Amino acid sequence: MFKVRLVVVLMLLFSTQAFLSCADSKSSEAYSSYLFVYFTGNRPGEEAVHYALSRNGYDYYALNEDKPIVDTDSISNTGGVRDPHILRGDDGNFYMVLTDLKTANGWSNTEIILAKSKDLLTWETSQINLAEEFSEFSDITRAWAPQTIYDEQVGKYMVYWSMLQPGGYDIIYYAYANEDFTALESTPKQLFYSPDEKSCIDADIIKKDDKYYMFYKTEGTATKGIRVAVSDSLTSGYVPEEGYKDQTDRAVEGSSVFKMIDSDTYILLYDMYVDGKYQFAESTDLLNFEALGADKVSMNFHPRHGTIIPVTEAEAAQLLKKFPSKNLPLITGAKAEAVRKQNILVNAEDKSVYLPVYTDSSLSNLDPQLETFPGVTIAETGVQDFSNGTKEYTLNLPDGSTSKYTVEAATANNPVLDGFYADPEIIYSEKDQKFYLYPTSDGFDSWSGTYFKTFSSKDLVHWEDEGVILDLKKDVSWANRNAWAPCIAEKEINGALKYFYYFSAAQTIGLATADDPAGPFTDSGEAFVGTKPEAIKRGGGQIIDPDVFIDPNDGKAYFYWGNGYMAGAELNEDMMSYKEETLSELTPDGTFREGTEVFFRNGKYYFMWSEDDTRSPNYRVRYATADSPLGPLNIPEENMVIEKDEANEIYGTGHNSVINVPGTDDWYIVYHRFTRPKGIKMGRPAGFHREVCIDKLTFAEDGSIIEVTPTLEGIAPVTIPAE
């Protein structure tokens, strides 16, 4: 049934007694990690099989220094292999199938490769030339992306792939492999074709609740992407579901699905081959998917079209022993509730770990519950005293060697909120004697959030989530996208304190009101600023980033906004409109980008703004002073308020507000930064994966602002003086 059969033998470097068979390990040891099998590109040497491991299913690290784990020339006739699909068999073996194709010679091919292994380390492979073996398909011009699934009804492994014949379009075919997985038993049969008679490729089948879900890529249409067809039978009856399951408008291919260990969650991954990256999307029903952001998934390599399976700790250990890599993070995280998971910093090169600890947690009695790289164990466990400095941990590697890591645990009050938030506005409410923080809800692709939340605190350190106070899709009739950069004022109206919440939505500014700082807020029903006023001469810029300021000298309120320009005007007494005749352009200089913040101290009005772009590590805050709320502005020669601290890997510090502790001259700056430590490596997505921080703001005797150094530790809890 095949012309050539090659047997590849990779000599094992360890005793067979030391390694459990796949069947034994599956039954005696739970899955603990994930193996990613992939190739890396179209250039010479990149069309080969690679391995990567992950502890959590989201963060992957290449094994074997991201070099091939098997010699391509020994298993391929063309000199290139692509689209590796790996399956754990019910018989304890592993099965892998590949496209035999070297694209330097063109995109036509007629061969696929079948491979079988007992241990993931040694593979026996067979090449099958479909055009030569099956006369019905002697004219095929390509055979792409084979995959394997076990057919429980017939007790055989089914191989399926797409083929193209002249004058037609790519169709999915299948055939059963013989008992030793070296050949196909019979002529391939049609499994699925696209109802629109367009090409479909890269099929991936997974079974769930007695149904089979076939994910595939459509080709040749104006809107192409990943779709799914569902059937009660493995070999027939697939009916396409409506819509596309990939969560991007970018070109995609090579989808694959795996189930998270001990979870009902499935991950759909696909190759964004034009962009050179992968995207993961999660689902519990295999029909509705939500993309995972750049903060959730990381890889220290650039994969193409691959698959992921769970592996046991013993299997991971032997993979790491056989295919080691330098600078793997041998410690990958910590499970302790006292530790801020989002901000753990592991430096594999320095062999160090920084654990940010919540303010009320004990450093002298801390069990960090460290997590290790798959296949690595840790000698020291239990409670440690971190109050006097770092602790050393010993990591045991599968080859018998050890590695020492130093672990630091330190109180970190920055960020002040868990999760992703940005553009923070803050007030002290006289109504209930608490601070309220009003941020942008962040972490959404391209700043696409649609709701606002607020948080309350009595000391600026411990914050309580008060929930959603305004949802554009539910509460606002005139805008339903881009909920950004709010501000708020508390003002007495007719003897009662009222709250006026100005917010950016759909690149305009809205206004909602409430009787309580935590809402509920009621939208005014129309944009507060919907068009750029003629008085603003500067061209371009968005109608965003409002700021409201109530002058403590006379109680008058002022409103500011702008991106690319700073506009300002006095508000009317009802706070629901501004006085047109007072509208002024206050743009300070060429450093102004957005994010105006105005406050008053010791006879001076301070104007702050953000410079550069929120996606830039150099996003930072500058200031000017004035003798009135509408300027003119006086710009000090040295006017930097806060900027990045590369030594501590703090970047993108900007879009701030300022708060004074009532009854004191204590001032604090509230700002956002890139999520740390992942943000600096994210590229553009760092601009919508931000965190809110608070640091002390101090002044010189002449009232000038002393530049703030952003910190990890943040501030200590504040106390409001008794009246």
Shape: elongated
Number of strands: 49
CATH superfamily of the largest domain: Glycosyl hydrolase domain, family 43
Class by alpha and beta content = mainly beta
User: Termini separation (Å)?
Assistant: 92 Å
Family: Belongs to the glycosyl hydrolase 43 family.
InterPro entries: Glyco_hydro_43, Glyco_hydro_beta-prop_sf, Glycosyl_Hydrlase_43_Enz
GO molecular function, one term: hydrolase activity, hydrolyzing O-glycosyl compounds
Protein name: Putative beta-xylosidase
Structure description:
The chain has 723 residues and is mainly beta. It folds into three domains: 31-322, Glycosyl hydrolase domain, family 43 (Tachylectin-2, Chain A); 331-411, Immunoglobulin-like, CATH 2.60.40; 421-706, Tachylectin-2, Chain A, CATH 2.115.10. Helix content is 4%, strand content 42%. The chain is built from five helices and 49 strands. The chain has a five-stranded antiparallel beta sheet. Residues 1-28 have low confidence and may be disordered.
The gist of it:
With 723 residues, the protein is mainly beta. Helices cover 4% and strands 42% of the residues. The chain is built from five helices and 49 strands.
